Amino acid sequence: MNQATPSWRAELHALTQDWLQRIALAADLAGLRELEVASVGKKGDVTALMRRVGTLPPEERRDYGAAAGDVRTQVDQALADRKTALEQAILDAELADDTFDETVPGLLPKRGHPHPLSLVQAEIESVFSSMGFHVLDYPEVESEFDNFEALNIPSWHPARDMQDTFWLQDGHLLRTHTSSGQVRAMQTFAPPFRAVFPGKVYRYEATDASHEHTFHQVEGLLVDRHVSVAHLLDSMRTLLSAILKTDVTVRLRPGYFPFVEPGFELDIQCRVCGGKGCSVCKQSGWLELLPCGLVHPHVLRAGGLDPEEWQGWAFGLGLSRLVMMRFGVPDVRLLLSGDTRFLTQF
């Protein structure tokens, strides 16, 4: 006795033929897209077929599922074929147009240009080169010795808590400040010498308008037999005036850093708000920009120098913050955002 053919087979066949015909008659890509949504879209007719499996007798479900899947395959293929045919027709029409000139140049790609960080860094390097400073480059992956121990920050020192560090599995770290280059420079150059070393630094900390986990600094170091805080401050004023293109309002206050003694914080009046208070300066009107001081004797010894014979001063300029002051950028996170709308302003 022959088993009766399930009624859904005829239904699926009719549905398939209907959609294949409608797709074949699609006149343009917009119309084809509408048919795609109506057939195989989330709420389309073909998509809905699989939801009926549970309503059928158990012995029919397997065959129905296979048949419904075949419908989906045919409709998907028809959509793809029709899309290819319509796109080819558009291209053929353009090529057949007598007004089409294939020799006309296409749109030129957008040209790149220096990043604001690169612009200001180049100017800083030029200023210090004119004052006889070497411009050096040191690794971003540092040893614990150069980043901490040599800078008078042993493992038990509370200053390590001020610099949340990205540690690597081999015991190295991503440098938390460009100060890690100080001892490297002392071990490379015979005193007296002067050098700056700009670069990227990393700290595992919360971000806001004036803090970023990845930012840029410029370290400066001068070693000679006799140095003074007055010389340090004069060099800093010369730098800031050259970069900001005007006389700047600064203030100097005591600051603690294990690798300098005495240590200072050189703040600049916020140029985003003009000193009135904003999110960049945390409503204070001032921005911490340039920690500095006289090199600690322990650091000189770590660099192989006798502190009885040699002295030094050092600074760690916040390059990212200086760029903000130069161009009035209200949020440091914009500098590394990769947003071309922001970058094309410079």
Question: Which features characterize this protein?
Answer:
single chain, 346 residues, alpha+beta, BirA Bifunctional Protein, domain 2, 2 domains, seven-stranded mixed β-sheet, two-stranded antiparallel sheet, 11 helices, 9 strands, elongated
Structure characterization notes:
- By secondary structure, the protein is α+β, with helices and mostly antiparallel strands.
- The strands form two sheets. A seven-stranded mixed beta sheet has the order 1-4-5-9-8-7-6, with helices on both faces. The chain has a two-stranded antiparallel ribbon with strand order 2-3.
- The mean pLDDT is 87.
- It has helices at residues 7-24, 29-40, 45-49, 58-96, 116-130, 144-147, 181-188, 229-244, 297-302, 319-327, 340-343, and strands at 134-135, 141-142, 173-174, 193-202, 214-224, 250-254, 260-269, 286-295, 311-318.
- 39% of the residues lie in helices and 17% in strands.
Strand order of the largest sheet: 1-4-5-9-8-7-6
User: Quick one: CATH class of the largest domain?
Assistant: Alpha Beta
Proportion in helices:
25-40%
Termini Cα gap: 85 Å
